[in-house]
Amino acid sequence: MNKIAIIYHTDLDGYGVKVAGRIYANQKGYEDKDIIFIKADYYKNANSKKKLFIDDLIDDHIKGHESEIDEIILGDISVKSEEKAEYLNELSKTKKVILRDHHDTAIWMNKYEWAKVRETDDEGIARSGTYWTAKELLSDEYIEKHPNLKKFIYLTDKFDAWTWAKSNPKLDEAVDLALLFSAMNEEGFDADIYPKLLLEEEVELFDEKMKFYLKIKNSDLKRQMWAAYFSLKSGVYTYKDGDKEIPLKVAVVSTENGSIIAEKLRELFVKFNKQFDFILNFGLNGGLALRCGDNPKVPVNKILMQMGDGSGGGHICSAGGKLPEGSIEKGIEAIFENLHINQLK
Ligand SMILES: [Mn+2]
Questions:
Q1: CA angle, 274 then 279 then 284, to 5°
Q2: What is the Å distance from ligand 1's center to 191 Cα?
Q3: Which of 81, 160, 241, 255 is a plausible cystine mate for 261, CB 3.0–4.6 Å?
Q4: Whole-number mean pLDDT of the chain?
């Protein structure tokens, strides 16, 4: 038996292309051993000329083997050079070649009959490589009969087309799927997710271990998001001491282990960040930790007395306290807008 080649990207969307291609090939009677899976892993192909990466993969896996290959499926990824596109175009005269992509940089490939590159569908909804490839290779009827596959395609599509980022809690599962993919990789998904996609009965895609991992990972994500948000508030502030106004350069960070990290940060801070007067570290539990290098302009314990809920204190270069009750966001606003420390415009 001849073979089918599937060329796909390394991310979740690329994996979805692999899934659709694999099911399609199996439906046509090709066993897994008859499928050439070509993962476009930029980093694992050291010999690649990089710039023409996908083109190199075609040289490595397809060229010279043309007579053994019946069909070539490319999804979520496109060739780079006109030369390789022309090569595939030649092959398309004697075998099935399809390319389904959604990247703007590949729109030029639409001049070929076998290539369709579209960012959005007819209704203007952004669509993924998985969506377009599954639409091409699998019948609506098949997808309807396989609820787990249907859900997988839906979530992958929503994730890759960024619809989830608009804080739609219904799409948290799409983020979960992508997080799991980054942890389990293709191999893990092949072993633990793919078999579920072939079932006709609806089952949970995630087992208990996956759910536990996601719980930890999601709280870490939340923390990282706040950390990035808070770090935008780094800048110059004035500290009011009676009638005196002292400008202070403040580095704002947020870490999970507030005072432990703050202490460690101080080492780095003293070494590399002499331009800042102190570090302000928020914990998501509402804790505040202030650290400064030697010879502070204002002792951080003094600054801290004017911050948070007023219960904090500590040493000249190392102090801790709490944000006012309520949400972190409100607490931060209270510190930066209502208390004695104001960012200079
Ligand atoms: Mn994609």
A1: 155
A2: 22
A3: 255
A4: 87
- The confidence score (pLDDT) of residue 38 equals 93
Share of the chain above pLDDT 70, in %: 89
- List, for residues 284-329, the tens digit of each pLDDT value: 777 888 898 878 888 888 888 777 677 778 899 899 888 777 666 6
Q: Are 262 and 248 in contact (CB under 8 A)?
A: no
- Is residue 117 within 8 A of residue 109, CB to CB? The reply is yes
CA of 101 to the centre of ligand 1 (A): 7
| Domain 229-343 in the same topology as domain 3-206 | no
* CATH domain 3-206 topology: inorganic pyrophosphatase (n-terminal core) (3.90.1640)
Using the mean position of ligand 1's atoms as its centre, give its distance from the Cα of residue 153 in Å: 12
Give the model's pLDDT for residue 94.
Answer: 94
Distance CA 112, CA 261 (A): 56
Decide: 48 and 23 in contact? Cβ < 8 Å: no
DSSP state of 95: S
For 83-98, what is each residue's pLDDT tens digit? 999 999 999 999 999 9
Residue 145's nearest CA partner among 196, 201, 204 is 201
Centroid of ligand 1 to alpha carbon of 131 (angstroms): 9
pLDDT < 70 positions in the chain: 42-52, 165, 167, 258, 273, 308, 326-345
Distance 100 CA to ligand 1 centre (A): 10
Q: Delimit the domains of the chain by residue range.
A: 3-206, 229-343
Return all residues near 273 (Cβ < 8 A) that are at least 6 apart.
251
Which residues are bridge partners to 289 per DSSP? 281, 320
CA 19 / ligand 1 centre spacing (Å): 14
Q: Report the C-alpha gap between 181 and 78 in whole angstroms.
A: 22
For tokens 């895609």, the residue is 205
- Rounded distance from Cα 232 to ligand 1 centre (Å): 30
Relative to beta strand 287-291, strand 318-322 is: antiparallel
- CB 128, CB 102: distance < 8 Å: yes
Alpha carbon of 182 to ligand 1 centroid (Å): 15
Name the CATH architecture for the domain at 229-343.
Answer: Roll (3.10)
76 CA to centre of ligand 1 in angstroms? 5
